[in-house]
Amino acid sequence: MKNQVYLLEGVVQDYAWGGYDFIPELTGFPRSGQPAAEYWLGAHNRGEATVLIDGGKRPLGQLLRERPEWLGPKVVKGFAGELPFLFKVLDVREMLSIQSHPNKAQAKAGFARENQAGIPIDAPYRNFKDDNHKPEVMVALTDFWLLHGFRPALQLEAVLASREALWPVRELIASRGLPKAYEYLMACPQSEVDQLLLPLYRALSADPPSGRENPDFWAYRAFQQYTKGEGEGFDRGVFSVYLLNLVYVAPGQGIYQGAGIPHAYLEGANMELMANSDNVFRGGLTVKHIDVPELMNHLVFDPVAPKLIEGSEQGALQVFQTPAEDFELRRIQLGKASTYDTGSAKHIGIAIVLGGKVAVGEGQQFSRGQAFLWPAGTALKLRAIEAADLFWATLPG
After folding, report:
1. CATH architecture under which domain 312-394 falls
2. Is 202 a catalytic residue?
3. Which terminus of the chain has a lower count of CB atoms within 10 Å, N or C?
4. Which one-letter DSSP state was computed for residue 276?
5. Is 148 known as a binding-site position?
6. Which residues does the Swiss-Prot or TrEMBL record annotate as the active site (predicted)?
7. CA angle (312 as vertex; 305, 278 as ends), nearest 5
8. pLDDT of residue 397
9. 263 is in an annotated binding site
10. Which helix (H) or strand (E) holds 239?
11. Cβ contacts of residue 11 below 8 Å, gap of 6+?
12. Cβ–Cβ contacts within 10 Å for residue 376, how many?
């Protein structure tokens, strides 16, 4: 196969929680006045990237269906000839919803069940948009904060004991256990949610907290983001700010979200690589559909000790290893005039330049914010024209 790379143009998603500057400054796209929350580099039908080829632009998914050999044998055989991952840049300005994702068996069964029930694929109350799982790995580009997994019991007790306004929640967990208590908090009438959260709302409003390492800071922000004031109805996702681990991820560090792990991005910019799926179960901090029984069926209540991924270094290459077979996130950092050889690629690769400028393949050059694709079987030599920083999405092996 002729060694060739192709310029790839992604799609900006203008979700309300996104920032206004990071992605436009990275990509050079003009500011639209709308948030630029995510920049998608993949073949997902809700935001398909385009490939510059033969003097024109082609949708990535269409091109891969015509040229399945670009994907590599493993993808053709194991992933039905579809690009198995979605590569993104995220800029989180406002808190995202508490959410979890199914494993592959759950996704297949749930998707078939909702199809059989005749639920339209675009219905807002539909849970399964496809039959795939949705593991994710992210690497922080700026200081990044998120919620990730339920706290260990002793930590949870200490957090709830530290705020008198949370003692009723503490007593609920002590009497019912965490799973039953959480189910009650997710399903109880709005009037009870308001009754439980009103003392906390008043305490935080009277003395607004500072310091992002304090869950009070995020609870207060959640009240501001999702509540107009007393009597307007409090978002039950506020409970999860205290029940889940509050995690700081420094630039260059990563974290993996497996099936059933409740999580929520709170603030910052990151690179994210995930299986090509849109299956999400929400647990608050949202105006979208919450299906409590489905949420409960897809949550891991075992306590989680968050594990940050530093990336294994192999010279200029860092690999952020995870259990996922659908994707692998890599980073290449090159000093000026230095080079890196990828070797003959077993799988398709997509890269984005986060900084600097590189010459790739047959003399093509890519600068900050530009993305490119190379087919399986391609061997690339990268040369840094300026000190360069690239993230690379592919598959393990």
Report:
1. Sandwich (2.60)
2. no
3. C
4. S
5. no
6. 282
7. 60
8. 86
9. yes
10. helix 238-243
11. 39, 40, 47, 48, 49
12. 22
Class level of CATH domain 13-147+248-297: mainly beta
User: Catalytic pick from 93, 236, 282, 331?
Assistant: 282
Distant-in-sequence, close-in-space partners of 348: CB < 8 Å, separation ≥ 6: 64, 70, 71, 72, 75, 83, 373, 374, 375, 376, 394, 395
Tracing tokens 């109880």 back to the chain, one arrives at 188
Does 133 carry a binding-site annotation?
Answer: no
Instruction: Dig out the tokens for 20 from the structure.
Output: 């206004």
Do the domains 312-394 and 13-147+248-297 match in fold?
yes
Q: Where are the domains of the chain?
A: 13-147+248-297, 159-238, 312-394
CB of 311 closer than 8 Å to CB of 354:
no
Burial of residue 353 (number of CB atoms within 10 Å: 0-12, 13-18, 19+): buried
Single-letter amino acid code for the residue at 234: F
Looking up tokens 């907290």 gives: 209
**pLDDT, tens only, 283-317:** 999 888 889 999 999 999 999 999 999 988 889 99
Is 103 in contact with 59 (CB distance < 8 Å)? no
**Residue 300 in tokens:** 């891991």
pTM of the entire predicted model: 0.94
